[in-house]
Amino acid sequence: MDKQKYIFLIIILGSLSALGPFSIDMYLPGFTAIAKDLHTTPNKVSLSLSSYFIGISAGQLLYGPLLDRFGRKMPLYIGLTVYILASIGCALTTNIDVFIALRFVQAVGSCAAAVASMAMVRDLFPPQDSPKVFSLLLLVVGLSPMLAPTIGGYVILGFGWHFIFVILAFMGLAVLLASRFGLPHTRKPDHSISLKPKPIITGFTKVFMHPQFYTYAVSGGIAFSGLFTYVAGSPILFMDIFKVSGETYGWIFAFMSISFIGVSQLNSVLLRKYNSEQLVYFGLALQCIVSIAFLIAAMNNWLDLYGTIAMLFLYLGCLGLTNPNTSGLSLAPFSNNAGSASALLGAMQLGLGALASMAVGIFVKDSMIPMVVIMAGSTVLALIVLLIGRRNITVLTETTDTDNVMIH
C-alpha cells in the first residue's frame, strides 16, 4: 500500500471513529445552557451523556454481526442515516426526557461508524500493524477533544446550543459521503453468518472466551472507563465547582487532550523497542500511581484549579499508552469474525464508560472526590484483572513489529 493511499484511508477511518467523540465533546460546554433552556439541572443533562454511552454500547453488539453478514458498507450507511436524523431531532426538541432519548438513538446510529472503522482496520492492515494504526486513528480522533468543546463553547455563545446538533448532522452527512466514495469494499457479504439470536450470542461468547480477548478487553475497558469518568465529570468539575466559563472550559478540555493524544503517538515510537504487552503493564502501573496520588491530594484538599488540571493531564496520558495496545491485543486473534470482535470490544469499553458516567451524574455535585474515587478504583481493578487474566494466556498473538507469537 503506497503512502498516499495509507494516509487517505487513515483520515477516513479516523473521521468515522471521531464522529462519536465529536457528538460527546461538542455539547459539553452547553450543559448549563441546556439545563436552563429545558428547565432542568446540569446533573439531569449529564444523563444525556449516559444515555449516549448506553446507546453506543448496545449498538456495537447490533452492528458487529451485521457488518460480518452484509459487508462493511450497507450497515454503515444505515447507521449514519439514523445518526443524521437523530441529530436533527436533538436540535429541535424542547423536552429534556425526549432529548435524553434522542441522544440514545443518535448513539446507536454513530456506533456503526465506530465498529466499521475498527473492523476495517483489521481488514486492511496486518495484525502487527494494528497498534500503530490505532495510534494514528487516535491522532485523528484527538481533534475531537482538542477542537469540539472549544468550538462548541463559541457556537453556543453566538448561536445557542441547538445549533451544535445542526453541525453534527452535517458532519454525519460528510462522513457518509466520504465513506461512500473513499473507502473500498473490504469484505464481501457472508450469508453463512446467521442473524438469529442464538448464533449471534454463541459467536460473541466464542470471542469473549478467548483468553487473550477477555484479558485485554476487560482490563483495557475498565481502565478506559476513567476517560468517560473525566468527560462526564469535567463540566461539573470545572464550570460548577471551579466556576470557569464555558469558553474557558473548552480551552481546558482542549489542553487536556494533548496528553492523551500525545502519548498515544509516542506509543508508535515505543513499539519499535517494546512489545504491546510490556507497554500495557507499564501504562496501567503508572496510571495506578497517578490516580492514587490524585485521590490522596483531593481528599486532603491540596488541589486548586491548576493542580487539578495537572493531575488529570498525567492521568489521561497513561490512557494514551494503554488503550491502543489493549485494543490491538484484544483483536489480534480474530480475522473472519473481526466485526463481531470489534463490536464486543467497543460494547465493553462503552458499557463500562456508561456505568462510570452514570455514577458521575449521581455522585459528583460539589466535590471532585467522588470522580477521583471512580477513576482510581477503576484503574486498580483493571490492573488486577490484567494480572489474573494473563495466567490463562499460553500463546500470545502479538501485535508488535518484531514478534507475531510470544510464548509465556
From TrEMBL:
Protein name as it appears in the record: Bcr/CflA family efflux MFS transporter
Residue span(s) of domain Major facilitator superfamily (MFS) profile: 9-394
The Swiss-Prot or TrEMBL record describes its family as follows:
Belongs to the major facilitator superfamily. Bcr/CmlA family.
Any stretches that span the bilayer, and where are they? 7-24, 44-63, 75-94, 100-121, 133-157, 163-183, 213-237, 249-267, 279-299, 305-322, 343-363, 369-388
How does the entry describe its membrane topology? Answer: Multi-pass membrane protein
Asked if the record carries the keyword Protein biosynthesis, the reply is no
State where the protein is found.
Cell membrane
Ordered alphabetically, the record's keywords are: Cell membrane, Membrane, Transmembrane, Transmembrane helix, Transport
Q: Which domain of life is it from?
A: Bacteria
